[in-house]
């Protein structure tokens, strides 16, 4: 049994950012990582994936981008190199190949069992991410047995697919990227489309992420949100990290032959039913996109009049099929694979502390979990809109390390 002040579960961007902040405060800690640094990026991403944020936005505590391609988008090997290099730079104390089996409360604070022995600690930081498990809808269980079922965690490239048609369910960032890749591989693609967030890749001479950074959209805090649960479940932006700064949308997908349908509702007797609300969902996405562009225009007028030479413009509204699919016989349509791009959820199966709601969500306030000395980092809108991004974990880590240090100080004073 080993004892330490603080344990961090996970050595991805969130865990490493917290490690840096704790080292700055001289707080003894160890990171427990089930694989190697950046394990999820190494083992649970498809081959062609690039980050959706530009290189300049890969900011971590004590690290900023200094290369010659600030507006490029990192590949997965480059992302792994970034995080591995950062871990070396900050000399993060990592126990790799260490899987957490359970976490229980103890007189000391927390008792952590792993495949390589047990730990006790006063404080515990859960930085294992929000994308541990594919969030597959219940109707997936009704899929005919001879139709392959994949998730973004198991899909790697089109070569693993049969030659038949493919249905991608979900039209956020993951869904639209996979739909594009599969269609371009020569397979006929259908994209089931629910709520989504449409944006251009670039606008008025800059990446959309640059504008969202400049205008303060990404720094929006909990105090500025009316419904935080809703904010934490907003779909990811329809973006692709293309070297050509390509804008991806339902329009661009339809232009290459992808057929779009409404949200997948249920499957029965080999037939899938789609929602009839496709038009309304798309109109709402167009409306929200134009509101964001108007916000950017207003910021330019107020903060940089004359400093932006490209004129304001709007993208074409989403094209709605004249006769949208409402039902599809999967086999008759030649569908041989379904990819469930329907989001992710964290895995807390090892956490034996009563802080999980009936919905399966962690009870916390800005990453301060509803249990003494327990913290979370790297979850959507933890403290800010950017909390789940590489660029966002640093600010959250600074805040939470301050709270953690204060907690340890109080504990020491009480023990004395």
How is this structure best summarized?
Helices cover 26% and strands 21% of the residues. With 416 residues, it is of the alpha/beta class. The protein has 2 domains: 2-132 and 346-415, FAD/NAD(P)-binding domain; 135-340, FAD/NAD(P)-binding domain, CATH 3.50.50.
Question: How does this model look, in words?
Answer:
The protein is of the alpha/beta class. It has 2 domains: 2-132 and 346-415, 3-Layer(bba) Sandwich (FAD/NAD(P)-binding domain), CATH 3.50.50.60; 135-340, FAD/NAD(P)-binding domain. 26% of the residues lie in helices and 21% in strands. It is built from 9 helices and 23 strands. Strands 1, 2, 3, 4, 5, 6 and 23 form a 7-stranded mixed beta sheet that branches. Strands 8-19-9-10-15 form a 5-stranded parallel beta sheet. It has a 3-stranded antiparallel beta sheet with strand order 16-17-18, with no helix packed on it. Helix 4 (173-184) links the parallel strand 9 (165-169) and strand 10. It is globular and about 65 Å long.
């Amino acid at each position: 049994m080993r004892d330490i002040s603080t344990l961090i579960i996970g050595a991805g961007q969130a865990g490493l950012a917290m490690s840096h902040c704790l080292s700055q405060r001289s707080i003894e800690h160890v990171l427990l990582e089930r694989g190697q640094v950046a394990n999820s990026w190494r083992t649970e991403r498809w081959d062609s994936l690039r980050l959706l944020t530009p290189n300049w936005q890969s900011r971590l505590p004590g690290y900023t981008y200094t290369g010659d391609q600030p507006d490029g988008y990192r590949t997965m090997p480059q992302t792994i190199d970034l995080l591995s290099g950062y871990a070396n730079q900050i000399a993060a104390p990592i126990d790799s190949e260490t899987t957490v089996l359970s976490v229980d409360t103890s007189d000391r604070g927390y008792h952590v069992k792993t495949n390589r022995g047990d730990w006790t600690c006063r404080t515990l930081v859960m930085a294992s991410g929000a994308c541990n498990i594919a969030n597959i809808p219940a109707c997936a269980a009704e899929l005919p047995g001879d139709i392959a079922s994949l998730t973004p965690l198991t899909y790697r490239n089109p070569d693993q697919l049969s030659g038949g048609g493919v249905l991608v369910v979900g039209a956020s960032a993951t869904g639209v990227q996979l739909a594009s890749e599969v269609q371009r591989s020569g397979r006929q693609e259908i994209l089931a489309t629910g709520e989504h967030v449409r944006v251009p890749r670039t606008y008025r001479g800059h990446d959309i992420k640059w504008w969202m950074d400049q205008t303060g959209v990404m720094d929006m805090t909990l105090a500025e949100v009316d419904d935080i649960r809703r904010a934490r479940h907003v779909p990811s932006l329809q973006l692709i990290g293309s070297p050509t700064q390509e804008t991806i949308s339902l329009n661009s997908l339809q232009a290459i032959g992808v057929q779009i349908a409404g949200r997948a509702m249920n499957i029965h007797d080999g037939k899938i039913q789609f929602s009839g609300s496709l038009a309304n969902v798309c109109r709402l996405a167009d409306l929200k996109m134009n509101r964001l562009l108007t916000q950017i225009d207003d910021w330019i007028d107020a903060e940089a009049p004359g400093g932006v030479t490209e004129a304001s413009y709007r993208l074409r509204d989403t094209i709605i099929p004249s006769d949208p699919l409402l039902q599809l016989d999967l086999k008759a349509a030649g569908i041989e694979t379904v990819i469930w791009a329907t989001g992710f959820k964290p895995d807390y199966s090892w956490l034996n502390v009563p802080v999980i709601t009936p919905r399966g969500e962690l009870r916390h306030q800005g990453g301060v979990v509803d249990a003494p000395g327990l913290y979370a980092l790297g979850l959507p809108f933890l403290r800010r809109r950017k909390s789940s991004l590489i660029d966002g974990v640093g600010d959250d880590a600074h805040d939470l390390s301050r709270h953690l240090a204060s907690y340890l100080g109080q504990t020491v004073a009480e023990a004395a």
